[in-house]
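Journal club prep, notes for RB
We'll compare a predicted complex against what the paper describes. Inputs for the manganese (II) ion case:
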Amino acid sequence: MAKKETSGAKELKEKLFLKKKNAYLRMSDAEIKKCEKFCEGYKKFLDEAKTEREAAGFIEREAKSAGFVPFDKNKKYKAGDKVYLVNREKAVILAVIGKEPIEKGVNLVAAHIDSPRLDMKQNPMLEKDEVAYFKTHYYGGIKKYQWPTVPLSLHGVIVKADGSKIVVRIGEDEGDPVFCVSDLLPHLASAQMKRPSAEIVKGEELNLIIGSRPFKDDETSERVKLNLLMLLNEKYGITEADFLSAELEAVPAFKASDIGFDRSLIGGYGQDDRVCAYTELMAVLGAKALKKTAVAILTDKEETGSDGNTGLRSAYLKYFIADLAACFGKEGREVLSNSKCLSADVNAAYDPTFPDVFEKNNASVLNGGVCVTKYTGSRGKSGTSDASAEFVGEIRSLLDKNNVIWQTGELGKVDIGGGGTVAAYIANLNVDTIDVGVPVMSMHAPFEITAKTDVYAAFKAFEAFINN
Ligand code: MN
Ligand code: MN
């Protein structure tokens, strides 16, 4: 009797098809416990480090307590030494020296610690009809309508004329006041709702309410502003002119929390890209005897295109590598040319509510593991570094060998939109680079969503790469 054509199809399919499976169905109970514990630390980080300066401070403190010391380019280093460099309080580089000669290359991991937010303008104070405001200028790509009616906290620094610096953090502690941007009530919003959605709230309408109580017994104008400046002068010793040399950032005041009855997801502000910053940091802080030197970069200004001296289009990484190489009598370019990099940034998680923008076969999903993105960019791969098949192959087998749950993902359908990461700027230094990060739902919104299993998988990926 002839063999049935269909027989063995199930086995064959099992053997030949690419398998995708939810991380919860692949992890042991013990692993899930570890993952949950890890995410508790992550949520604390999200609450403590809401801006690039706060993240840089957090990273420096953690590094110090893990035995890292400030990098000194005139010193000789040996395997096991741990150093760090802080760039203008906004970016940090950590390095753990490995046993292999430095000219054989280093393992780089690069995440960014800036997130979309509302920056205060240079001359921010304004009183209008007895309500006082800070005028803002949004930072990074935001949907402006998402930011009104959200409690916001104020973070940053004010540099006074004498050069002294005041650190501001208001709206995070119990009992602190918060700030917010108003929106129109629906009853009167029929004209507003006819605006194109990019203009439902316009840039110049993102005004932060900072007070409403006028200065008493005075016939002068702008009495609310006067009263506020009096309060600020009493508390910080500042005058209005001091805002000219300040960097104040409004970010969501709420804390990170679990989402869902099953607590499987994390909601919080600034997970792009502090989710990769934290997982990368934990991996490098835990580094033991390394074969290759590990270099972790926590950079600023990714959300505005990486320009400026704290962004990765600047030379600060190149200079650091050159200085590190010089400690061993080598050239920075030799080190870079033999180095490999995981550009640790988030990707868009497939959103079942808005499936149309994703090409499901090539979208990353929540609980699918850490996402490996071969290329980013927009249109015809414009602005991407596009990792080589060889390098993807190397990372693929590294992750599999270390039982890291991972998936691939492309940012949406072709020509729907696009985006970039720091990968291209590192690859431009002649480094093999690929994007590896956590899928995020509602990216760039005040409250972004990640899956705990993916966060933990990212940590395991960076750990495997550094210890490789
Ligand atoms: Mn990012
Ligand atoms: Mn982003």
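Talking point for the session: The two ends are 54 Å apart (CA to CA).
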